[in-house]
Amino acid sequence: MIRKILIIACFAVLVGCAPRAYTADAEKKEAKPDPHSVEYLGFLFKFSECRMIKDKISCDVMVTNKGEERTLIATAEEKSLFTERDTYTSRIFDNLGNEYYAKRIRFGAKESIKPQTLLLKTVPTKVTLSFSGINPEPKTINILEVGFLSKEHGVFKVWFRDIKLVKSAAATEKEKTAK
After folding, report:
1. What would the mean pLDDT of 72-80 be, rounded to a whole number?
2. How much is the pLDDT for 99?
3. What's the Cα-to-Cα distance from 88 to each of 26, 75, 145, rounded to whole Å?
4. What is the pairing mode between strands 43-53 and 154-167?
5. Among positive and negative, which fits the CA dihedral 1, 27, 20, 68?
6. Which pLDDT does position 18 carry in this prediction?
7. Which of 100, 155, 105, 151 lies closest to 126 in space, CA to CA?
8. How many domains is the chain partitioned into structurally?
9. Does residue 70 belong to any structural domain of this protein?
């Protein structure tokens, strides 16, 4: 039975769908999963928000380690002759079809293109991804793709879809005066 569950879970990860959760009542009604929360490889990733100020977007994700303490690296754009940036780099796609790579990431108290943080068990840690050069027209982000690297699991990504952009008060006021 356990082997069958593991095979189903592995297949669900491979095809890109999340395993479904079920309630314990007699009717076995399907529980609605949180669309902005992903549990993967012993980590809980919970999307908070994406804010737009002028031509910059900042997105926040909380990471909670469900296992013993371990190190995790978040990855932004790194231009190198010997790397495939799409393999591990964090990026967004807006509703206009534009793609932007993260320029900097703040992970806990560290900020760089590859901040590394020791995650304690069950302690949420904030990841802020910074994107620049954004077309000021997007209303939503179709996909936020966050790249990570760990010793145990190598390179992996977590995706969040259909994200509403929160515009800064200054940007909103500028739009009102332009009309």
Report:
1. 80
2. 93
3. 43, 7, 9
4. parallel
5. negative
6. 39
7. 105
8. 1
9. yes
The span from the CA of 95 to the CA of 87, in Å, is: 22
Give me the CATH number covering residue 168. Answer: 2.60.40.10
Residue 26 lies in a domain: no
> Is 127:117 a contact under the CB 8 Å cutoff?
no
Global pTM value: 0.73
Domain that holds residue 116: 36-178
Give domain status of residue 7, yes or no: no
- Ramachandran sector of residue 54 (left: φ over 0; alpha: ψ -120 to 50; beta: rest): left
Q: Is residue 95 within 8 Å of residue 141, measured between CB atoms?
A: yes
- Residue 40: what pLDDT? 93
The DSSP call for residue 22 is B
Residue 84 one-letter amino acid: E
The neighbouring-strand residues paired with 106 are 111, 128
Give whole-number Cα distances, 34 to 20, 31, 38, 42, 84, in Å. Answer: 11, 9, 8, 17, 31
Looking at residues 148-177, what average pLDDT do you find?
Answer: 79
Nearest-CA neighbor of 62 among 149, 123, 131, 17?
123
